[in-house]
Amino acid sequence: MLKVYLQLLRIPGVFTAVSNVLMGFMLSQTPIHSQILLIPLLISSGLLYFSGMILNDYFDYGVDKTQRPTRPLPSGKISRQSALILGIIFLSCANLAALFVGIQTILLTMIISSLILLYNIKIKSITSIGVLVLCLIRVLNVYLGFTVIGFTLNFALIPIPLAFLVASIGILSRVETKSASSKTVILNLIMIVLSVTSLLTILSQNDKYYYLIFLSMFIGLITYSSVKFGQKNSISIQNKITYHLLSIILLDATLVAAFSDMLYATIIASLFVPAYLLAKKIYLT
């Protein structure tokens, strides 16, 4: 039964949400006496991610009945009512945890919560707007890490490569149970190129080169998944989405290595290991 709930939560993906917050937090250079606030920040971000996954399955119940009948809700292993209650509890607790950090944090988690609800209830079916909202949620998740000391414009553009990467994932997720058209494949590739290009542009402002270790890992993983799973069938698309999601961790580590500290970047990159191992057992898409 535990595995069923872990499937509902998409447990491997929470490491990508955690890495986003850690990136923002580490780049903000939060004073040592305030670093205890990282704990409620991570709890809040993790719960927001879990609630998003649960509510996604709750509102996709009708579609999943046909396309993914073995998943926890359509298979009846977890009732829809239980999922809804759990999703609401996680969403509420995420905002409660944010209260321990500060006013900026709670305001941001409330905005993210609203976007999660808006996406699942109303605009998921509108491809362009839905993808845009997914990108915005991820960007705001990075900004959560800055809220301990207050948001600064110095790093406002840092999440741009992440936004393009999430857009590529969002585009693919629209057809994960079907076969992708040539248009979808091309759009996905364009978003990947924009992600890497914007990342390289941001990194060009830095004269430290430790980040090359993580940059090569990030580009290597993206290239590997694009080549190995370049076919247009649903299994290949789901595998590609999984690897693109996992690459978020390496992207975050690259930026932290460039603009903060190599040790912090290594801590973030280490999240890839449990995320990858869990993704072998529990689906991410």
Structure, described:
The protein is mainly α and 285 residues long. It folds into 2 domains: 1-151, Tetracycline Repressor, domain 2 (Orthogonal Bundle); 157-273. The protein has helices at residues 2-9, 14-27, 38-59, 61-67, 80-99, 103-123, 127-144, 160-173, 182-203, 212-228, 234-259, 262-270, 272-279. The mean pLDDT is 90.
Q: Radius of gyration, rounded? A: 18 Å
CATH first level of the largest domain: Mainly Alpha
- What is the helix fraction of residues, given as a range? over 70%
Task: Examine the coordinates and then state which fold CATH places here, giving the name of the CATH topology of the largest domain.
Answer: Tetracycline Repressor, domain 2
Percent range for β-strand residues: under 5%
Distance between the termini: 20 Å
Query: How many strand elements?
Result: 0
CATH superfamily placement of the largest domain: UbiA prenyltransferase
Largest sheet: none
| Contiguous runs where pLDDT drops below 50 for at least 5 residues | none
Apparent shape: globular
CATH architecture of the largest domain: Orthogonal Bundle
How many separate helices?
A: 13
**Total domains:** 2
Mean of pLDDT? 90
Q: Which structural category fits the helices and strands?
A: mainly alpha
Question: Which sequence of SSEs, written as H and E, runs from N to C?
Answer: HHHHHHHHHHHHH
